[in-house]
Amino acid sequence: MTVHPPGPLWTGRASNRAQWLLAAAGAACLALGIELAVDYAWDAGIVALLMAVIGCLAAGLLILFGTLAFVHVSVTVDSEAMEVRCGHIGLPRRKIQLSEVESAEFVPRISPQHWGGWGYRWRPERGTAVIVRRGEGVELRLDDGRLFTVTVDDAESAVLVIRTHLRALAH
Length: 171
Known about the structure:
By secondary structure, the chain is α+β, with helices and mostly antiparallel strands. The protein has two domains: 15-68; 77-170, PH-domain like (Roll), CATH 2.30.29. 38% of the residues lie in helices and 33% in strands. It is built from four helices and nine strands. The strands form two sheets. Strands 5-8-9-7-6 form a five-stranded mixed β-sheet. A four-stranded antiparallel β-sheet has the order 1-2-3-4, with helices on one face. Helix 1 runs antiparallel to helix 2. The longest helix has 23 residues, at 46-68. The radius of gyration is 21 Å and the shape is elongated. The model has no long low-confidence stretch (mean pLDDT 85).
């Protein structure tokens, strides 16, 4: 008889449509870099042109991939862990074992400004966070004293599921 691990007990997601505007700006920078490389008169100064092309391509890639990674976040809670996956390919990813969690709190108002913007953030006085939008989220206090925060819809339900499993682990 094969024993299969239990599936997720709770799944949630949060998204930020404004990130698509930033991704479009990144795509525009890429297009400008390609346009400069293909159609510009190279006799006008190769060093300046190369710097412009490389700068546009680098800025475009950085903006495009940096924003697409944080267009949305998916959070899954099962009986052993909470897993956070960002963007369309699931990176960056963070898996926190529930055995490492001391407490879980529902946070009704999380602001990107409090964390220094959108994305995967670390602040010495606040811990680590995945912030994709303003609004509700989950805050975990880990057994080493660190905090991990993630913005996600229906965060209150996630906290209830996590607390239920924390009580089960304590017995």
